[in-house]
Amino acid sequence: MRFNSFKLKRRAHSLSRTSTEQSWNVFRQINWSRNFSRDGALGESGESGRKREDEDSQSKSLGKHQPFTAANQIQRTLLSSWINILLLAAPVGIAINYVSSISRVAVFVVNFIAIIPLAAMLGFATEEIALRTGEVWGGLINATFGNAVELIVAILALVKHEYVIVRTSLIGSILSNLLLVMGCCFFFGGLRRPQQYFNETAAQTATSLLALAIAAVIIPTVFDYTTDNPVKDIAGLSRGTSVILLVVYSAYLLFQLKTHKTVFSEESQKVAAKPWTRSSLDEGAVGRGIALPGALMSGGVSDGNEHSAIFKQAGSDGEEEEEEEEPQLHFFVALGTLVISTVIIALCADYMVDSIDSVTENSSLKKEFVGLILLPIVGNAAEHATAVTVAIKDKMDLAIGVAVGSSMQVALLLFPLLIIIGWGLGLDEMNLSFDLFQVAVMFVAVLLVNYLIADGKSHWLEGFLLICLYSIIGTCAFYYPNNQSNSSE
């Protein structure tokens, strides 16, 4: 089966949501039928409950599609994961914005929390719509809405002339994906394995494009700092560069959706995970160890199908069947979820951006820290959990696709798009001349990632290095003065 980077990301999210192993992942789906089957009030014995679960899993493997009903549509949108409890913060955050007696810091915090589950819901609706389209249109839909939260926050900040927030929030999204997310993937995925493998061709293609995007920021910045040209000339240079970056991104879409589909289809080598303790055996392992040799050596197993069934059972641990994805939402439910979540995100983001000045004035937080560290959490929390979950399962191609793919999309699509939007609004200050600190952190982040993924292998120490670099940048951003950031405008 062929996959492009958007399909890899969708597949990673699907695997993360349906995972039953990582209980820490609050974005994973709640299996309501399984929870109810365990309830003693239902009066089912353990044997009948297991039989029913076996029948459910068998029907799922046979591809039987459940009809869409009002109950399961509500369950799959609003009651699908524990993180949706935070949806209650959305109406609260919108309401307290109009109460003058409530601190603006509280408005920022509540709306900040509300956007996290809304972003996950927006991503889920986008994937559901993309499932019903062809490969090309599905990729374009994911490309358009994949980073919708970052785009909404940046546009609202741009309209309010918060140029520091615009730049740092986008840079922070790149840094969090490249350093924090990929670092956690390498670290937690490598704790039980000597090393992990991934498709270095696809990863290096994305990081090469990232290097080009960083160069497109460095050149206008150096040009601005070494010449006395007016802001209008810097804006013209930035707009021309942005058009070129959009052409590059279009070429990348053509590359992965049409001309080089097989580049993303190569399976990487898998490494078996070592147990946490020497005596840690999964349930049923002893029974399989006794039954398998006895069944093969005795005359008890005579049917070839039974032979294959035993082998399948013995090797089923850690092996997950690749099933064709089926839509969980009706098309109009997915479309309505996409529109409603986008509108609510826009409202919450508007109030959150309005409160940033109060947060930085009444606390020790700086705008640089809010943009680089805090705001990326809003739109990327679900993707962070997804990437770490699939990395622990040794599906590093999916993890790399989420981390590097999202960073590349921000650098090649959102950066130039916001320059073009600023051009339309007549804002010459919105250009590619960044603060030197911002340029430096992007450069060292891409440089380190390029070094670490060059061999197509990773281990926990490489992840630790990426996390440490992110911590260093976060510490510097915490002490970075606001007036220095403002001087770059």
TrEMBL record:
Annotated compartments: Endomembrane system
Cellular-component GO terms for this entry: endomembrane system; fungal-type vacuole membrane
A GO BP entry: intracellular calcium ion homeostasis
InterPro entries given in the database record: CaH_exchang, NaCa_Exmemb, NCX_ion-bd_dom_sf
Sodium/calcium exchanger membrane region domain boundaries: 105-257, 334-472
Residue span of region Disordered: 38-64
Membrane topology term: Multi-pass membrane protein
Example GO molecular function: calcium:proton antiporter activity
Transmembrane intervals: 82-99, 105-124, 136-158, 170-191, 203-223, 235-255, 331-353, 373-392, 399-424, 436-453, 460-480
Main location: membrane
Compositional bias (Basic and acidic residues): 47-58
Top-level taxon in the UniProt lineage: Eukaryota
Keyword terms, alphabetized: Ion transport, Membrane, Transmembrane, Transmembrane helix, Transport
Keyword Ion transport: yes
Pfam families recorded: Na_Ca_ex
Family: Belongs to the Ca(2+):cation antiporter (CaCA) (TC 2.A.19) family.
The protein's name in its UniProt record: Sodium/calcium exchanger membrane region domain-containing protein
